[in-house]
């Protein structure tokens, strides 16, 4: 008697198949196919938007993918609710071996586009999956020439800052100048976009490509050269570095600074002859010493943890001071209880020492560190933007005050609990470490002051330039 499959039994079988694709279990797949040889054909009737091959490709289960495409190769070209084939998912996750296996079955899926008009190559470029990119371009080299609203794959590499992937694409299309100079929907070339995003390493590489040096003289749809794109953003050291790089490439912007309304033009210039010492300092400043105005916003969570730990440590030092507390009232004990009348239970033992100034010093620095860390916590949880200069300086000051006071708290506590015959050695060690601390904080403070001086000098230079051109300068009181 033949047993007919019920809808519930069939749904359970399909669900088991998808669970096997999640785990990459080939043995379960083989068992299901033995029980129901047409189970893979029934996948299209299931309520799931993805096929088991989508799931296995996303998770990188190579053996499971190979088993699926061996039994039903058409799964390679099946799309999900986003219009993506399994190759899209494997490329996005960078599963190079899975990508290679899918391409061996059907290399034409390189041309499959999802609902956002993205090829698998575009997703690989967005994520910088170099291995997947190499397999895709090897299978269908002409797929790199497809242009979307966001531009070419070169634009995607620059937009998401994947320099190695960008180098591979440029080397693959060296002879195709039209592709290298392609523009996005705003008329920006790859170099325009790199300048706008201030990606110095990317710009430096692009300017080594002859075709890209030609692009340095191009205008976007807004009629702006790379110089004008750069001038639209805030002026800082990175901006000056990029201007220098463009100038060395033989490009200089001539804008209408004398009131002319003509469009900006460009002329080739000779690279300026600068000393090696100046270039060395520029590289040192740019790579290691430059002040980043958004670092506090990036590290808000870490700063919160640091401030909370400092507050906890200093609070614990109050309720458990060095030397402990008196467990009961006493009138003697070898300390200064007689002159104070009584040593109260719960008070610090060393507060009654003959050298009570040491305990006062400890308590003072500990309190300063505690309240400074609380101020940091308040500023971090206030929800205010911290990338403006006043808030940033306040937060930096509070952090330095908390850390410095905590270091003095440690030295004071150590001095209180150190025996007199070892006090000289401990003081010598603390003096050396304190000198190192002062040097470090002094260097950091110097660079902050230097950044402030540079900022003020730039503002003053702009004001002089506007005055020399008889342009109005607006102040905050106007």
Quick structural summary:
This protein has 478 residues and is mostly helical. The protein is 59% helix and 1% strand. It has a two-stranded antiparallel sheet.
SSE order and pairing:
Layout (H helix, E strand, L loop, with lengths): L6 H17 L2 H10 L16 H8 L2 H10 L14 H8 L2 H10 L14 H8 L2 H10 L13 H7 L3 H10 L4 H4 L9 H8 L2 H7 L3 H6 L10 H6 L5 H12 L3 E3 L10 E3 L8 H14 L5 H4 L1 H20 L17 H4 L15 H26 L7 H29 L5 H46 L10
Antiparallel strand pairs: 1-2
Describe this structure in words.
The structure is a single chain. By secondary structure, the chain is mainly α. Helix content is 59%, strand content 1%. It contains 23 helices and 2 strands. The protein has helices at 7-23, 26-35, 52-59, 62-71, 86-93, 96-105, 120-127, 130-139, 153-159, 163-172, 177-180, 190-197, 200-206, 210-215, 226-231, 237-248, 276-289, 295-298, 300-319, 337-340, 356-381, 389-417, 423-468, and strands spanning 252-254, 265-267. It has a two-stranded antiparallel ribbon with strand order 1-2. Helix 1 runs antiparallel to helix 2 (26-35) and helix 9 (153-159) packs parallel to helix 12 (190-197). The radius of gyration is 34 Å and the shape is flat. Mean pLDDT is 76; it is low at 253-274 and 468-478. Residues 253-264 have a biased composition (Polar residues).
Find the structural class using helix and strand composition.
mainly alpha
* Count of individual beta strands: 2
Described by the principal axes of the CA atoms, the overall outline is flat
What's the alpha carbon Rg, rounded to whole Å? 34 Å
Low-pLDDT sequence parts: 253-274, 468-478
Query: What helical percentage do the residues reach?
Result: 55-70%
SSE run: HHHHHHHHHHHHHHHHEEHHHHHHH
Give the strand order of the largest sheet, numbering strands 1, 2, ... along the chain: 1-2
Beta-strand proportion: under 5%
């Amino acid at each position: 008697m033949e047993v007919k499959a019920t809808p519930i039994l069939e749904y359970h079988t399909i669900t088991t198949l998808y669970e096997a694709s999640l785990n990459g279990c080939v043995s379960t797949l083989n068992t299901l196919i033995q029980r129901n040889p047409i189970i893979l054909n029934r996948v299209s009737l299931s309520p799931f938007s993805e096929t088991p091959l989508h799931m296995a490709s996303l998770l990188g289960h190579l053996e499971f993918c190979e088993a699926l495409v061996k039994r039903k190769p058409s799964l390679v070209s099946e799309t999900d609710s986003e219009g993506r084939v399994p190759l899209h998912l494997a490329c996005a996750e960078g599963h190079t071996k899975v990508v290679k296996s899918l391409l061996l079955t059907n290399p034409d899926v390189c041309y499959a586009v999802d609902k956002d008009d993205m090829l698998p190559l575009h997703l690989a470029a967005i994520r910088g999956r170099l291995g997947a990119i190499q397999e895709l371009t090897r299978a269908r080299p002409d797929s790199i020439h497809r242009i979307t609203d966001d531009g070419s794959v070169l634009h995607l590499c620059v937009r998401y800052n994947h320099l190695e992937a960008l180098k591979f694409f440029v080397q693959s299309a060296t002879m195709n100048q039209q592709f290298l100079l392609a523009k996005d929907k705003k008329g920006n070339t790859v170099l325009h976009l790199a300048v706008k995003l201030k990606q110095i390493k990317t710009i430096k590489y692009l300017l080594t490509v002859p075709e890209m040096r030609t692009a340095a003289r191009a205008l976007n749809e807004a009629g702006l050269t790379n110089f004008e794109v750069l001038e639209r953003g805030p002026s800082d050291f990175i901006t000056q570095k990029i201007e220098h790089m463009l100038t060395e490439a033989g490009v200089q912007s001539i804008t209408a600074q004398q009131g002319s309304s003509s469009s900006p033009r460009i002329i080739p210039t000779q690279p300026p002859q600068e000393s090696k010492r100046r270039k060395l300092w520029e590289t040192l400043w740019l790579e290691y010493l430059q002040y980043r105005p958004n670092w506090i916003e990036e590290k808000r969570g870490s700063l919160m943890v640091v401030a909370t730990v400092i507050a906890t440590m200093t609070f614990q030092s109050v309720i458990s001071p060095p030397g402990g507390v008196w467990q009961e009232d006493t009138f003697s004990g070898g300390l200064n209880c007689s002159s104070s009348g009584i040593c109260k239970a719960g008070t610090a033992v060393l507060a009654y020492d003959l050298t009570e100034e040491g305990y006062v010093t400890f308590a003072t620095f500990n309190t300063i560190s505690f309240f400074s860390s609380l101020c940091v916590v308040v500023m971090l949880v206030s929800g205010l933007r911290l990338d403006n200069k006043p808030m940033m300086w306040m937060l930096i000051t509070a952090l330095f005050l908390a850390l410095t006071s905590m270091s003095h708290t440690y030295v004071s506590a150590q001095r209180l609990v150190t025996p007199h015959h070892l006090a000289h050695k401990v003081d010598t060690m603390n003096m050396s470490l304190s000198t190192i601390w002062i040097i470090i904080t002094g260097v950091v403070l110097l660079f902050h002051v230097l950044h402030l001086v540079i900022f003020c000098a730039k503002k003053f230079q702009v004001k002089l330039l506007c005055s020399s051109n008889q342009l109005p300068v607006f102040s905050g009181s106007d």
